[in-house]
Amino acid sequence: MFIDRAVVEVRSGKGGDGAISFLHAKYVPNGGPDGGNGGRGASIYFRASRTITTLLNFRHSKTFIGQDGGKGDIKNQYGKYAEDVYIDVPIGTVIFEEEGHKFLGDLNEEGKVVCAAKGGRGGRGNSMFKSPTNRAPKIAENGEPGEIKRIILELKLLADVGLVGYPSVGKSTFLSVVSAAKPEIADYPFTTIVPNLGVVKVKNGSSFVMADLPGLIEGAHLGKGLGLQFLRHIERCRVIIHIIDLGESGRDPYNDYLVINDELKNYGFGLEKRPMILVASKMDEEGAKERLEVLKKQINKEIYPLSSLLEEGVDAILYECAKLLETTPIFPLYSEDSEELEHKVYSLEEEEKEFEIRRLDAHTWRILGDKIIKFYRMTNISTDEGMMILMNRIRKLKIDDELEKLGATDGDTVILDDFSFEYVR
Description:
Structural class: alpha/beta
Shape: elongated
Largest sheet: 6 strands, mixed
Number of strands: 18
């Protein structure tokens, strides 16, 4: 079964907690702090592999979880680094983060990898907090939390030439003639329901990959027919062969030409700017030559006649494909600065706030904000010193002042992640 889109969840590992420990050794008085750092959590990577051709496996494997890093230990021993997780996907897979549809990477080469979720760094042990003014620190960091993301995988086939046109215009028949591919061929619309690939060898010695895509109809870019489901596979094609039915189907060839061109343009990715070869199919049928002459006057472009049944006109089309591929560059799916555009630049006046306070009920408040929550999760509050560091951070951010402005009263409950404390003015 050909599956070309999947949504999965990835969870990278949490960093290991730093240790609080003091050296206890014979003849070594006042040994000092020796708590080691925690190990890094496992990151989640997607990797392009030739051994996989479809995203079928991801219909059943929906969640990938990385292990947490090991905890720090006595004698400045570091926690064990968790082994990163590599998930193999077909070459041509594009990775997006579901939230905001943020582009993460294009796995268009064998062995290329994209980090989907970064493992948390290990927390520092108390030996890292030793200073001239604090020779026996009883504070350590917890490991940095891992990331949880929903990831969209989209497979976009690596083909040099793409065949487009209305259903039943002869795309599959043409592919079966010029390559060893065996697509289903029948006399009813939408015979092709999955893309078919074939390697085409030209008589001049060159070769290229050709893709036969399911037929397009008006409104395909909006999802009608099989449009949106398979239009993504033409995004990588450097040359497009537009096949127009000139047989006895009763269709209007010129209208078909206009509709398909509009669909390509409306879909985006600059498809209308790619080199296009116009092919008039079914030239062996009665009246096809007369219809071709009319179409040439309407379009005023070169049109290659084709009879796949008699295998006439095939070589001319393939030679033109090979010629265009020599001079047509690869079209990037995303610009080089797309990653840069994903980031907002803040001025001093609109710097991102570190926290937000939300009222839950008359006497309960919640502190929100990625930065303050991350700081809390990485602060070991099991010791008095750790608790003092957290409270000092809250005071430094003037969270208590903000609570007072919002109307908090003595005894109200304030919640930060899974920690709560009593508000006192």
